[in-house]
Design brief:
about 190 residues; mainly alpha; Four Helix Bundle (Hemerythrin (Met), subunit A); about 50% helix
Length: about 190
């Protein structure tokens, strides 16, 4: 298996336990680096701040339903959207046409008919589950296929993993902005 080498100056100090102090990332496999990237974007501590899970944690269904403007997405819609794209990346990696997203719709699935606290908890759990399933697919993904094209895609498998981590961070920032807007608008 080919090892990825990074210059010492680009090695973060908080990466998993190194074998050698000098070059902390050189002993890592490409797959473990991709998993670290995915985890930092979702629910692990990282230098860039809040990941996707951190931006959603602790919100109520009322928080998630607040809409910053007409024809603007609310947090709940963003949560469903990010869960859907985790599913799409997993499907492209596994090349499994039998996989189906558990909610109707695509890209921006519709909110539940009754958007209450229980439905919000279910959809947050859906996001966590889709992340867990994607992570498991990456953990067992053959390293030899990382640079091959994804199923029904012009992008490589590794580009899909980088892309979904970037997607998580983009939407984490969007959620943080929506939360800040709501605080500003609803301030007494």
């Amino acid at each position: 298996m080919r090892r990825i080498r990074f210059p010492r100056s680009s090695c973060p100090s908080d990466v998993s336990p190194p074998r050698r102090r000098r070059d902390r990332l050189s002993a890592r496999t490409p797959r473990s680096l991709l998993l670290d990237l995915l985890d930092q974007a979702f629910d692990r501590r990282a230098w860039h701040g809040t990941g996707l899970w951190g931006s959603v944690r602790g919100l109520t269904h009322r928080d998630a339903l607040w809409r910053p403007g007409r024809r603007r997405h609310n947090i709940w819609e963003v949560v469903l959207h990010t869960a859907y794209w985790k599913y799409i990346v997993r499907r492209r990696l596994t090349r499994d046409p039998a996989l189906a997203f558990p909610r109707p719709g695509s890209n921006w699935p519709a909110l539940p008919a009754k958007p209450d606290a229980a439905a919000w908890r279910r959809d947050v759990a859906l996001l966590q589950e889709q992340h867990r399933l994607l992570r498991a697919a990456i953990a067992r993904f053959p390293a030899a296929r990382l640079n091959a094209k994804g199923w029904r895609s012009s992008w490589s498998n590794v580009a899909h993993v980088y892309g979904i981590a970037s997607h998580d961070l983009y939407h984490a920032g969007q959620i943080q902005l929506i939360k800040a807007l709501r605080r500003r608008v609803t301030r007494p």
